[in-house]
Structures
1.
Amino acid sequence: MRDPKRIEPILSLIREIWTNHPDLRLTQLIMNALNINYDPYYIEDDDLQKGLEKSKKLLIRIGERRK
């Protein structure tokens, strides 16, 4: 069985990114974080989490440039 403790950190990242960038659609947010052009069905949760963390950092840098 997969560790249920993995769920909250991923949801927290999604919540934080989406709250700060509400114009994104959920699937946009996820696909941008994954940075893939294929079916995300087989992506592991830890890969999604890493992608979300990278996406968060990138969006912060973009936001800083716009100020």
Note: The radius of gyration is 12 Å.
2.
Amino acid sequence: MRAWCTILAIFASLLAGCTSGDKQAAELLETARFEEKQNNLDHAAQLYNEILKKYPSSPAAKDAAARMGMLTQPKH
């Protein structure tokens, strides 16, 4: 019984870590979007890259990748 409690505690802490990472990634994404709206494109790109590097499996990573694609497209 004690082993199961330990396993559950470890699993719960892992889930909490994922949630915390998702929150941090979402906060970075919000900041990057703000920077992009302020025409600070270099800083926005830096933040999007940080999301992709630190939180690649977060929901924010998909949005960050899409925004990076938009920033790196040549403008006509």
Note: The two ends are 66 Å apart (CA to CA).
3.
Amino acid sequence: MRVRLNGSDTELDDDTTLDAIVRRYGQGDRGIAVALNGEVVGRSRWNDVKLTEGDRVEVLGAIGGGEQEMEQWTTLSY
């Protein structure tokens, strides 16, 4: 199946879960947020949510720093 992962068209096996995406690309799961079709999906649901053709997935990683040490999010590159 074809999905849009962090802005790039990506071919994935049918029944791929959000958890598999995070594990597949080796980023671990600490400091990670995942959005599916514009909605953030809680970590406890990653293993249950299967992707379908045309889904849009954004995997974001937290980065620290800045004037007030505020946490910011950045799209991870694959």
Note: The chain has one domain: 2-75.
